[in-house]
């Protein structure tokens, strides 16, 4: 069952229960107040009747003591004369002796033989009870009256109109409730749909994301809990999209890595196998023999160099290097000393500048990093060029910079040169026995140091590589 239907049913049931409880409570309160009012009025009326009869009898006794002609009348006759003058519009009087024998009654219906209010009745006590007789409701109020002898006097009143009013109120209430429920049903239908609209939008978005559309987002239209949920979902979707893109990028990079690795291995192996097969199957001249052996040796060395760089990439995955404070200019001098033969071959001057500050680093890794960067600069520069290796501070950042005035790198290649096996000039790379792994290793070393690698370059103007320590 959908959420809006659950909300609809729950609200509708709660409304019906609450509306009925409130309606019944109001009608019953009105009914009880009416009954209590009638009981109070009837008790007062009963008291008045007893008092008036008592006064009439006392007057009769005084008159009889003066005028003996009226002595033939009995007290019963006097009561009958008084009661005969009593109004009879739904109100009745019944007088019984203590044996429940009827003295007088103007009832036009037959009361039940067993009447609880007549039992164990004492002076100064009045009892009342409501009875249903012939589909009518009567209020019986009974008490004892002392007229020399004790009599039971009952005042009976027809209170059927109160019960009829209650029935009419219930009938009106249920008709009114029907129309109210119809209106409320329509209203709660729109309200439940409005409340669940953000949830439906969220569901549609999740379905699109599950189908692969990671760019879709939930439209936020409120600042309530559902708005917060939508906002958090969008953040989660953004994170998922970024992770998916990163995974796709990594998979593409892995695929390219494997393809490039296969190509890098296949080319020298094909040459080695070809020359080896030539030497194995044919008798060749000494010159061809030495050329073949030399080529096999050079290709073998290239494979060895490639395997070493591959091993460097694998080993650099482990983050267990210990960083220590080292004098940076002293480190530069050591790197320069190691590159002296290559610098001499092209008569390139490596200029070192900066203060000999202490920098926290892993010495061997930093030497590999700087050697790779300077080696790339040597390859990019013409003979008799200059390469700058400098250290300086810029605000709270410390920067190592390698700058050359070589052939430079085009803008479209800068973003990809850190990828393994990616090379800008394949012919130049092949001539220098390169495989495109140097900068990938550099990038990993920089990450181990918690630094950032920034490359600035223009074609035919030169390249600057900055290692920025935060």
UniProtKB/TrEMBL annotation:
Transmembrane segments: 6-27, 172-191
This protein's record includes keyword Cell membrane: yes
Pfam families: HAMP (PF00672), HATPase_c (PF02518), HisKA (PF00512)
Record carries keyword Translocase: no
Catalysed reaction equations from the record: ATP + protein L-histidine = ADP + protein N-phospho-L-histidine
Stretches of the chain forming a coiled coil according to its record: 230-264
Enzyme Commission numbers on file: 2.7.13.3
Key words of the record: ATP-binding, Cell membrane, Coiled coil, Kinase, Membrane, Nucleotide-binding, Phosphoprotein, Transferase, Transmembrane, Transmembrane helix, Two-component regulatory system
Molecular-function GO terms, alphabetical: ATP binding; phosphorelay sensor kinase activity
CC annotations in GO: plasma membrane
Alphabetized InterPro entries for the sequence: HAMP_dom (IPR003660), HATPase_C_sf (IPR036890), HATPase_dom (IPR003594), His_kinase_dom (IPR005467), HisK_dim/P_dom (IPR003661), HisK_dim/P_sf (IPR036097), HssS/ArlS-like (IPR050398), Sig_transdc_His_kin-like_C (IPR004358)
Histidine kinase domain mapped to chain residues: 260-470
Topology versus the membrane: Multi-pass membrane protein
Gene3D superfamilies hit by this protein: 1.10.287.130, 6.10.340.10, Histidine kinase-like ATPase, C-terminal domain (3.30.565.10)
Record-annotated HAMP domain positions: 193-245
Subcellular location: Cell membrane
Protein name: histidine kinase
Organism: Maledivibacter halophilus
């Amino acid at each position: 069952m959908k959420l809006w239907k659950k909300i609809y049913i729950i609200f509708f049931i709660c409304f019906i229960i609450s509306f009925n409880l409130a309606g019944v409570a109001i009608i019953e309160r009105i009914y009880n107040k009416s009954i209590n009012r009638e009981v109070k009025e009837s008790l007062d009326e009963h008291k008045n009747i007893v008092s008036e009869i008592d006064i009439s009898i006392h007057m009769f006794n005084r008159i009889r003591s003066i005028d003996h002609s009226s002595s033939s009348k009995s007290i019963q006759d006097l009561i009958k004369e008084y009661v005969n003058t009593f109004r009879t519009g739904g109100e009745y009087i019944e007088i019984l002796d203590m044996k429940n024998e009827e003295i007088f009654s103007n009832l036009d219906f037959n009361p039940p033989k067993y009447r609880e209010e007549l039992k164990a009745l004492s002076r100064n006590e009045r009892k009342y009870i409501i009875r249903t007789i012939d589909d009518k409701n009567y209020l019986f109020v009974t008490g004892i009256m002392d007229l020399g002898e004790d009599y039971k006097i009952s005042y009976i009143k027809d209170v059927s109109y109160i019960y009829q009013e209650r029935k009419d109120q219930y009938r009106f209430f249920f008709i009114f409730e029907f129309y109210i429920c119809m209106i409320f049903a329509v209203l709660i239908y729109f309200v439940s749909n409005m409340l669940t609209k953000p949830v439906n939008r969220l569901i549609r978005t999740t379905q699109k994301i599950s189908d692969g559309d990671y760019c879709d987002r939930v439209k936020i239209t409120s600042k309530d809990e559902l708005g917060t949920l939508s906002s958090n979902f969008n953040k989660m979707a953004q994170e998922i999209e970024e992770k998916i893109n990163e995974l796709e990028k990594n998979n593409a990079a892995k695929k390219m890595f494997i393809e490039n690795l296969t190509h890098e291995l296949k080319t020298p192996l094909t040459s080695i196998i070809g020359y080896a097969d030539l030497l194995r199957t044919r008798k060749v001249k000494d010159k061809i023999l030495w050329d073949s052996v030399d080529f096999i040796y050079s290709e073998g060395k290239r494979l060895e160099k490639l395997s070493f760089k591959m091993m460097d990439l694998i080993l650099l995955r482990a983050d267990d290097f210990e960083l220590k404070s080292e004098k940076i200019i002293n480190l530069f001098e050591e790197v320069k000393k190691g590159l002296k033969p290559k610098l001499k071959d092209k008569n390139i001057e490596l200029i070192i500048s900066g203060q000999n500050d202490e920098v926290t680093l892993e010495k061997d890794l930093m030497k590999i990093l700087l050697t790779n960067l300077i080696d790339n600069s040597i390859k990019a520069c013409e003979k008799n060029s200059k390469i700058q290796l400098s250290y300086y501070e810029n605000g709270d950042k410390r920067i190592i910079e390698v700058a050359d005035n070589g052939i430079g790198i085009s803008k479209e290649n800068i973003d990809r040169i850190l990828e393994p096996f990616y090379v800008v000039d394949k012919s130049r790379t092949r001539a220098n026995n390169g495989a495109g792994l140097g900068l990938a290793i550099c990038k990993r070393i920089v990450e181990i140091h918690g630094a950032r690698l920034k490359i600035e370059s223009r074609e035919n103007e030169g390249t600057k590589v900055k290692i920025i320590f935060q």
